[in-house]
Amino acid sequence: MTLGTESISRLLIQYSVPAIIASVVTSLYNIIDSIFIGRGVGAMAISGLAITFPLMNLVIAFCTLIAVGGATISSIFMGQKDISRATDVVNNVLLLCIIQSVVFGGITLLFLDEILYFFGATPSTIDYAREFMEVILLGTPIAYVFIGLNNLMRATGYPRKAMVSALLSVGVNVIMAPIFIFVLDLGIRGAAMATVIGQSVACVWVLAHFISRRSFIHFNLRNRWFTPSIARRIYAIGMSPFLMSVCACIVVVFINKALLDYGGDAGDLSVGAYGILNRTTMFFVMIVFGVTQGMQPILGFNYGAGNWERVKRTLRIGIWLGMGITTVGWVITELVPDTVSSLFTTDLQLIDIAGHGARIFFLFYPVIGCQIVIQNYFQSVGKPKISIFLSLTRQLLFLIPFLIILPKQFGIDGVWASIAASDLIAFVFAIVTLWWQMKKHNQAISTP
Predict the structure, then answer these.
(1) CA dist., res. 77 & res. 94, Å (int)
(2) Dihedral of the CA atoms 123, 270, 130, 103 (nearest 10)?
């Protein structure tokens, strides 16, 4: 395949650009959806939506546990020219996505109110959060199959088709959301319905690809649909992004509770402000994820084939791209934070809280791109333990202690400062870990 011979820069363009476009469109959908909710339902609905972020992270976490692990393993098998086992991976991913979505979605629906109150819901926001998540959880099987197979589509050599499926999901969503919210007056529940409908259309597209025998890797009834050894590898490699999402869930709970405690009478609006900043930061982070998704098949294939120089070159280019993207985000949020916040709401108090928080929140944002790329590098070459360690440093080991200490000294500014400080320290840890692993690998390959 060209993954082992083509120019790295050309391959990154070929694989990353479609993934970036899909990520940008997905991020824009999240932003536009929040704008529809903020302007069509109200400022408190933004806060209710922010309460759902940790639960949404959990929904995605259990999906990426399978999707990312399956994509990485299929790329490695293709690098080893083992097409039969790559096909086994596709079959296994479909089955695992269906089982896991039904179990997770069902259990979460049974205890939805208790979970939302734990995540920081109040009597003012619980109805909004519940209405949104009930619809999302009912559509979990569709979302899991779509996301799981879409990752495999990209990893098995179809980045453009993977981009189209993301565009389908978002396009349908953006068309339906304003109809449900403004025309049919379905409120925040209408926004969730639009999300599920968009995912359903994209899911049909992805399933059609893997059913077709014209696809290089496709479903095959003769191959195994559940292989314990493959399932274990999928979960082992997928554990890094899974834990990252779980940590993000835990961290959001701490952030929401800190904002409610130190935000005074504007506690609920402070949670809404964090929702605005979260949507903003995820826009640029998702672009970086687009770069890492494009890197993943290149890294996995060449690592599996033993092409170490191509692996290193891919990583170097990815780091510079990642830092460039988050630097652009830093410039925008530091120069015009109020303008960004006003896109989501007309509530002046909410705009003021979000604009002030942004200048602290995004202080060290440029280095986030580098940290994300390094973390995903270790995941792509089948070293999940290191990737897990790096995900834990930023979101758990540093941020939570900062959230306990800094707000006591600086109030709500300490909440925003905690996020910035953990970003900086996690970046340093990522650089040191990468240097140490590179040195260790070079010594291993130079030893006869």
Answers:
(1) 18
(2) -130
